[in-house]
Amino acid sequence: MIASRPQFRPIPQLTGFLWALALICLTSCDRCQDPGCVGADCNPEATPYLLEIPPFFPPMDIPADNLLTVEGVHLGHLLFWEKSLSEDGSISCGSCHLPEHGFSDPSPYSTGITGAQGIRNAMAIINIGWASSYFWDGRAATLEEQILEPVAHPDEMALPWPQAVARLQANSEAPGYPQLFLEAFGTTTITAELTSKAIAQFLRTLISADSKFDQWRRGETSLSDDEFAGYEIFLREGGDPETTPGGQFGGDCFHCHGEAGLQFSDYLFRNNGLDGSFGADAGRAGVTGMPLDSGRFKTPTLRNITLTAPYMHDGRFITLEEVLDHYNSGGVPSTTIDPFMKYTTGGLALNPVQKTQLLAFLETLTDTSFIAASQFQDPH
Amino acid sequence: MNCKSSKRKNTPLHAVTWVAFTFLLIQGCTQVWWWSNESIPGTLRFDAQLEWNAESTVLGDVTIDHLGHSIRLDNVQMYISEMELRSESGDWAPIGDVALIDFSVLNPRILAPVPAGVYDAVRFGMGLPPEINSDMDPASYANDHPLSVAGSAGMFWTWSSGYVFVKYEGKFAGEAGDPLLEPLSYHCGTDSSYRTVTLEFAEPVYIQSRQLTVYELVFDAAKALVGETDSIDVVTDPVTHNGSGTTLGGRLMNLMDDAWTLRQ
Lengths: 380, 264
What we know:
Chain A is built from 13 helices and two strands. By secondary structure, chain A is mainly alpha-helical. Chain A folds into two domains: 145 residues, Cytochrome c-like domain (Cytochrome Bc1 Complex, Chain D, domain 2, Orthogonal Bundle), CATH 1.10.760.10; 159 residues, Orthogonal Bundle (Cytochrome Bc1 Complex, Chain D, domain 2). Chain B has one domain.
């Protein structure tokens, strides 16, 4: 029935033409010798940073005009922890994105320099190089764009970019930012864009791939019976088959926190049934204006989930037990609640033993070497 | 050095090489020069359209099904694979391997380079053939590929069962007038639910070199629930997350086989 599938065939005449083109390109294009350096802002002398993609992970798409260099990542590391990027010099990115909490904030709402609080929990920054949009509502399409926001945001670092740039530019003593920008980008003229590019380079190196689960996946260790049972619950369809069509007494978690590419997120926007109405925070609908997006938020990764409490976009749950109780209840019905949530059929019906097993599995996603890595800590 | 190299220049072997090279070059050039229009492909674009009972619809619209239930579709996604065109001689020419149609995206479409010629039908698989379905690692594809982790947009199921072929999701009301709160969640997949759709063009299509030809590929979502030999009641069958054999998923795939039309 199913014919074997030939791929697109090259046109033979094209081959000669392409060879000629390649020759012309080779002889005339000096960029060809320098693939690490595209666009105006690059230092051809900078050392390419060799990013290791962990086993089972997909490739990371890095913008061609901001390829990673050792100098760029180093600069980004310093800037991520640079308190002078906040108006009163009291906080840096690292103040709300703490390594020991999986680069998130242990308080439900982060406090900016004015003492003002936003309405959302600071997101964990883990394997962010694989995300396809940024913030709970996905309003930033690139990491470079995302980073411009917290510095100037009045509830966060509250420093207008021209002032931030002037401060970095005037820094003649250690660390000596103009010189570091020269080494990373080939210019001593600092701009907001270059600052965000450097931080983005650093954030792309925040890779967590050495949890017990990863080690098990690589065949280096085994899971305990409870952990493995929890993994199976994670992957099974939810609900009692008597009441829920297709139910397999599972947790249904994989549908949204999918294990494809070992990301534990589908990076899509979903309403997991926290609220019946969305006056407090419309989530994705605030960006798209579409009623269908009301109450939808970006599915977060579950990596290092034991470290990133409190949970959900508003940090409403303090413990993972509360999170599991929420899913077990089926969630609050609403016009946009995801059909995966078992809100009409009495929830997942996980018993206490199954909940303990699911928790045991979630704990295997903790990667202590990631949070302790010296190259991520405050260098100042 | 100079002496050596000039000596080498004059060897008969060298002359032969030069003649051969010049011949190949001229040959290559004339091939490029005489590159006839016929060998440059044209482009065929299928714009995917969502309809409900032959009326244009978008996700989020509230519609009425064949049994009078109110239904709101929130998500319709499907893999289209092994697309082929039938030429006048009756041969099928492959034009694309796999695409993901996602009706939540603005203007979902399939673009394919097609050799210039005359065609009278198109056929494609709904879902994925086994060789690219199960036991595949989505992480092995570039991120813009429809089967990659990011490109599959939630359509990857698990390592063993492969990808979801079709997602048809939304909400319905059991009684007319009730709020739309009941979940409708059809995920069809597994190798045995792969179906081939064949559609004839109303008139033969002339694909010309370098020219863009556009057709609408219309999916009538109402037909997923009712057809000539089968019908599905969303109240008794609101959920399926598989597709093998005669199960609900398999029935849905059979019904959806007849839900497609072509329009210019």
